[in-house]
């Protein structure tokens, strides 16, 4: 299970979860993923090959939570275009158009 730590955009904006540990990402059977947020759970399909990754068919439970960062998190997954791992064992999702990166531990 990967935990979202931060997102760094190329315009130097940094977004971090307001509630540490609430946003997680898990991969199952080589084609599906599940995630938790500060409000709902979500899941869908993913495809990863040669450093490229795409998340598709994303569906979420529909509870409303005031101040949730869920929309931003879902957008980060939808905008992921690549991935790699750091020497510290972190998962980095690279965002489309070199617009930034998302760090998971």
Derived from helix and strand composition plus strand pairing, the structural class reads mainly beta
Largest sheet: 9 strands, antiparallel
Q: What is the average per-residue confidence, as pLDDT, rounded to a whole number?
A: 96
- Secondary structure tally, helices: 1
Number of strands: 9
Unreliable spans? none
The proportion of residues forming helix, as a percent range, comes to under 10%
Looking at the structure, what is the overall shape? globular
Reading the helices and strands in chain order gives: EEEEEEHEEE
Provide the gyration radius in Å. 13 Å
Strand content: over 45%
Distance between the termini: 8 Å
Strands, helices and their partners?
Elements: E1 2-9, E2 14-15, E3 24-28, E4 32-36, E5 41-49, E6 52-60, H1 70-78, E7 80-85, E8 91-95, E9 100-104
Antiparallel strand pairs: 1-2, 1-3, 1-9, 3-4, 4-5, 5-6, 7-8, 8-9
Structure, described:
By secondary structure, the chain is mostly beta strands. Helix content is 9%, strand content 51%. The protein has one helix and nine strands. Strands 1, 2, 3, 4, 5, 6, 7, 8 and 9 form a nine-stranded antiparallel sheet that branches. Strand 5 (41-49) and strand 6 form a beta hairpin. The chain is globular and about 35 Å long. The protein starts with a strand and ends with a strand. The mean pLDDT is 96.
């Amino acid at each position: 299970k990967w935990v979202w730590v931060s997102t760094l955009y190329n315009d130097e904006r940094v977004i971090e979860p307001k509630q540490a540990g609430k946003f997680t990402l898990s991969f199952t059977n080589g084609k599906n993923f599940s995630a938790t947020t500060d409000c709902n759970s979500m899941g869908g399909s993913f495809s990863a090959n040669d450093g490229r990754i795409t998340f598709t068919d994303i569906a979420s439970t529909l509870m409303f939570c005031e101040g949730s960062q869920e929309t931003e998190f879902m957008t980060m997954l939808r905008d992921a275009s690549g991935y790699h791992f750091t020497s510290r064992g972190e998962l980095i999702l690279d965002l489309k158009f070199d617009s930034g990166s998302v760090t998971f531990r």
